[in-house]
TrEMBL record:
<protein>
    <submittedName>
        <fullName>DUF3667 domain-containing protein</fullName>
    </submittedName>
</protein>
<keyword id="KW-1133">Transmembrane helix</keyword>
<feature type="transmembrane region" description="Helical">
    <location>
        <begin position="231"/>
        <end position="264"/>
    </location>
</feature>
<feature type="transmembrane region" description="Helical">
    <location>
        <begin position="200"/>
        <end position="219"/>
    </location>
</feature>
<feature type="transmembrane region" description="Helical">
    <location>
        <begin position="171"/>
        <end position="194"/>
    </location>
</feature>
<feature type="transmembrane region" description="Helical">
    <location>
        <begin position="139"/>
        <end position="159"/>
    </location>
</feature>
<dbReference type="Pfam" id="PF12412">
    <property type="entry name" value="DUF3667"/>
</dbReference>
<feature type="transmembrane region" description="Helical">
    <location>
        <begin position="80"/>
        <end position="98"/>
    </location>
</feature>
<keyword id="KW-0472">Membrane</keyword>
<keyword id="KW-0812">Transmembrane</keyword>
<dbReference type="InterPro" id="IPR022134">
    <property type="entry name" value="DUF3667"/>
</dbReference>
Length: 278
């Protein structure tokens, strides 16, 4: 009996359990929780899965993962967007755990209260710092999404030339590298937040250092750079990063200033974002 694949509509013979065209499995029975658990295990938990291949090889041979995706070889590894979504999911767990337990808020409050400069802090300043830390956690996911295009821009400027990546390929590069840093460091961060908040703060700095090192190592492997070329390009990237960040900050300040001036001229009460009473 002939059948047609439910995914690509190609013909599938009765003796075949998988489509020869797209590889999809033929399923006749209704879905159960056991099927869902099995699919989840096939994708993420097992040792021989796309996730494990991607996670391990981004340590061992990042060029195989990144160049493979750029060049169209996408069956063995997770695609860049799925890997990023997984990192966002893990980030969500991280934020939920820290906010529900108030581990870091309690630590920050104790740090401020026991600081030598306590006399220089008002109650409003202490409350403002705690609110800032809470809001910073709330927008971790958005921060991740906005950071990747910025890092890709820095990478494009630092590695300008035809033999290097274009901007979109740099985005793919950091989708993998930045998401990998999140997936690798976040479970350790959650554990350290409970065991030792002080070490947790130092670990956060180490995570940033790891991102810099892994980015440099991945660029070295992808572009077959020498150690000297890698160091030089890394220094250029740091300079470009600082210069671009300062430029964007100046643009932001200028935009806010213009907005304030225009709003004031139009008679708006900026403190409440409501038209001024006349």
């Amino acid at each position: 009996m002939e059948r047609h694949c439910k995914n690509c509509d190609h013909m599938l013979y009765a003796t075949h359990t998988h489509c020869a065209h797209c590889g999809a499995k033929w399923i006749e029975k209704r879905i159960t929780m056991r099927n869902v658990a099995a699919d989840f295990g096939d994708l993420y938990i097992g040792l021989d899965t796309k996730f494990m291949h991607t996670f391990v090889d981004l340590f061992r041979k990042p060029e195989a993962v990144i160049l493979g995706y750029v060049q169209g070889r996408r069956m063995y590894y997770m695609d860049a967007v799925r890997y990023l979504l997984l990192s966002l999911f893990i980030t969500g767990i991280y934020v939920f755990v820290l906010k529900q337990t108030n581990v870091m808020e309690d630590y920050m409050a104790d740090s401020i209260l026991t600081a030598d400069t306590l006399a220089n802090y008002s109650d409003e300043q202490i409350e403002a710092q705690q609110k800032f830390a809470s809001k910073f956690l709330d927008y971790q996911g958005l921060l991740l999404l906005f950071t990747i295009p910025f890092l890709a821009l820095v990478g494009r400027i630092s590695f300008w030339g035809r033999k290097f990546f274009n901007y979109t390929e740099h985005v793919v590069f950091f989708l993998y590298v930045y998401a990998h840093m999140i997936i690798f460091t976040t479970p350790i961060s959650i554990l350290l937040a409970y065991l030792s908040p002080e070490i947790f703060l130092y670990w956060s700095y180490l995570a940033l250092a790891y991102l810099l090192f892994h980015s440099a190592q991945s660029y070295k492997r992808c572009f077959q750079l020498t150690i000297a070329e890698t160091i030089l390009r890394s220094l250029i990237a740091l300079i470009v990063f600082v210069a671009t960040a300062v430029l964007l900050m100046l643009v932001f300040i200028f935009t806010v200033a213009i907005t304030v001036i225009v709003a004031s001229k139009m008679g708006y009460d900026l403190s409440g974002f409501l038209p001024a009473q006349t």
